[in-house]
Structure formats: structure tokens, C-alpha cells
Amino acid sequence: xxxxxxxxxxxxxxxxxxxxxxxxxxxxxxxxxxxxxxxxxxxxxxxxxxxxxxxxxxxxxxxxxxxxxxxxxxxxxxxxxxxxxxxxxxxxxxxxxxxxxxxxxxxxxxxxxxxxxxxxxxx
Length: 123
Prior knowledge:
two-stranded antiparallel sheet, mainly alpha
């Protein structure tokens, strides 16, 4: 039996936002002037074992390394050297280097607004 996601199915607008996020790439890599494919990261609250997703509007793009700790080098040490700390492997260090989830969401939303403005789209 499949477990239902705590956030349910995204609306069309949320799914379109995710497409825009994926097109921009990982926000952490962008901060380092690197372009890498992004996965959708849902912000969470709560302790280590009681984390709860905030919903589809509280999302930003992270690459496989920053999101799940997976990299092409096969070594976490090389991943850190190339891209910085991974949220999955070192959440405290990740926040020290890249900021909080709230700060990354704000940065993501600013990037989306700039791209939409450049393309003449509504926010």
C-alpha cells in the first residue's frame, strides 16, 4: 500500500512553479556560481524524528547532493569540496554556509520573480 504524502497533490500553479524551480537549478549551487539540476525540497519543521512538511508553496530547488547527499564523486568529502555541505548529511553546517530554509525560500522566490519579470510574466 502506498502512503499518501502529507502535502497532497500540488495545484497547477504549484506544479508550474516547480517547473520554474527545476529550470533555474539548485539554489545553493547558484550561490556558488554553479548550474546543477534541481529537485524540489519541501521545507520542514519539527525535530529530527517528527519533521512535518510545510506544504507545496514552501519549496525550493536543491540538487541531489544538497538535497539527499548523493554526488557523482562517490565520496562525501569530495562532494563537500566541490559543492559545500549537504542538507541531508550535515544540516547544521549546511545552514551555516547557505542559510536557513526560510532564507533559501526567500532567495528562490526572488529569483523566480526576476525571471518572470524578465519574461514579462505575472508573479
